[in-house]
Amino acid sequence: xxxxxxxxxxxxxxxxxxxxxxxxxxxxxxxxxxxxxxxxxxxxxxxxxxxxxxxxxxxxxxxxxxxxxxxxxxxxxxxxxxxxxxxxxxxxxxxxxxxxxxxxxxxxxxxxxxxxxxxxxxxxxxxxxxxxxxxxxxxxxxxxxxxxxxxxxxxxxxxxxxxxxxxxxxxxxxxxxxxxxxxxxxxxxxxxxxxxxxxxxxxxxxxxxxxxxxxxxxxxxxxxxxxxxxxxxxxxxxxxxxxxxxxxxxxxxxxxxxxxxxxxxxxxxxxxxxxxxxxxxxxxxxxxxxxxxxxxxxxxxxxxxxxxxxxxxxxxxxxxxxxxxxxxxxxxxxxxxxxxxxxxxxxxxxxxxxxxxxxxxxxxxxxxxxxxxxxxxxxxxxxxxxxxxxxxxxxxxxxxxxxxxxxxxxxxxxxxxxxxxxxxxxxxxxxxxxxxxxxxxxxxxxxxxxxxxxxxxxxxxxxxxxxxxxxxxxxxxxxxxxxxxxxxxxxxxxxxxxxxxxxxxxxxxxxxxxxxxxxxxxxxxxxxxxxxxxxxxxxxxxxxxxxxxxxxxxxxxxxxxxxxxxxxxxxxxxxxxxxxxxxxxxxxxxxxxxxxxxxxxxxxxxxxxxxxxxxxxxxxxxxxxxxxxxxxxxxxxxxxxxxxxxxxxxxxxxxxxxxxxxxxxxxxxxxxxxxxxxxxxxxxxxxxx
Length: 689
Ligand code: SF4
What we know:
CATH architecture of the largest domain: 3-Layer(aba) Sandwich
Largest sheet: 7 strands, mixed
Bound molecules: iron/sulfur cluster
Structural class: alpha/beta
CATH topology of the largest domain: Rossmann fold
Shape: globular
Radius of gyration: 24 Å
Helix content: 25-40%
Number of helices: 24
Number of strands: 28
Strand order of the largest sheet: 5-4-18-17-16-6-7
CATH class of the largest domain: Alpha Beta
Distance between the termini: 51 Å
């Protein structure tokens, strides 16, 4: 008997719909479904990325039994024992050091929105802290902070399907063909329909190859280029004066701040020709429907929030809001990173982006959850190493569906942090590098084995559905968290994910009308969705009213700052982390899919320019030692003309040659997002290969 179960792809934020094909209780294939964003198409991860459900044990094995560390060894335990032990240890740490000594994560991956809602409720109501964060901190944290400041909502103002009808796409630090192939399809369609494509990227990426104009800026000079964009719009009177007068504030300060960033001065910093900067802005301002799309090339720098605000300012100056196919799109990376933010797995907001510092919002959640809630913002995930190693403030870490040893910068420091903590809980589906440091491991059900909701990158709530029975010994994430909360003396229990969802939307005006029923009927419901009879909102800011306190967009520019760790004699090259199309994130899922794991092999590659290859005597395929001030790894050389001399690139998917052994833990001062895109390294050939 063959069943087809409609669900949403578990990889990127494109939110593609697919049918899982199930034969005799086992997933045997996937086929595209007609979702709002994918319209019957899938990329290779959508087609072949389901196989980890069959636990082929290629990279690592599925977790099937709780484990507790005893006498230094992880040993199997019963669920009862593991829940009791976890609750007792957390209670003891809370009693001894206070609730702020405990940190928790949400998960942007398979668990879904309901489990994230339950996790942040657990941390806030059962533990009593706002120390809840998740991997948005290492990716689009700057988008949430920057766009909230500039526009009011920290999300895509536009929709993925609108991309193909834009007249101009300004693509900044974003390589959609690799990160979001189905979004890339929309970009190609836009080009086929006549759109102008401008790409800002140091590397000649697949996106840059599609571009009419490629602006190959030097790594780490984003703010200088964005300021120069603003300078041209002002100096050449290309901005929409009427729109700015009515709907935008901060013009005079903005003019002052971009005054010195003439295209000629910017050329000296960025390496982009002044004439190309002027041409790009004349085209952008001259288009009726201009849209900005950006990605990690904006967000993973220590000046990321400033650049996000600067890009939003370009769109504000030209009146590119409040209509279809305009606006600004931070295209969220993981399948449910938007959802984890929506559900309040962040240290400063409850679900629905309601600030924890707002007394009215806090009173509402206190009433609903029946407890007194903390009123100060919690810790950010990337601050934890410092808070543990230098300040000795955090003693316990409940890590849910994340692998910080593989995904966070300066892996050696992350390992040291985990080992110094008194208690580490890892709740996941596969054994991973972080779980090696756990005191308790709680095995969860996977995507495909439970129900729920994901949020696509363009604010679209969509149902995920159970297709197969989970392995014996695993439990849904939300159920595990409820059991720990109950054992800690704060009873939490739900009969279904829909019951959790309904509690959540009852507390979140932005999401109030997005019921399961509406998702079943429409397929996708984009927030804001205020009432039961509201269909949802494809693009934000209709009527040019922004979600800021006074309804106006805010302009922003400031001085450019160079990245912190510059190359020198000992470490003469720069390293930036990037992505590869066939793998995803820390690879626990794609690395355990037979088809995908054959596409590329450990160790990962390092892209270098032909000039540097010549200088160091390196040929394509050579095994290299890659060394930074923090660590040393092995990688295979990929000599590429797409790379500028002096710069190198590695994907962060691979376990051997994990580039986060090398990356620097410098953070953006506002969003606390690491500078994954810039650190200094040197290369050494491994001669006896
Ligand atoms: Fe899945 Fe993203 Fe590929 Fe769509 S584009 S199939 S969501 S990985």
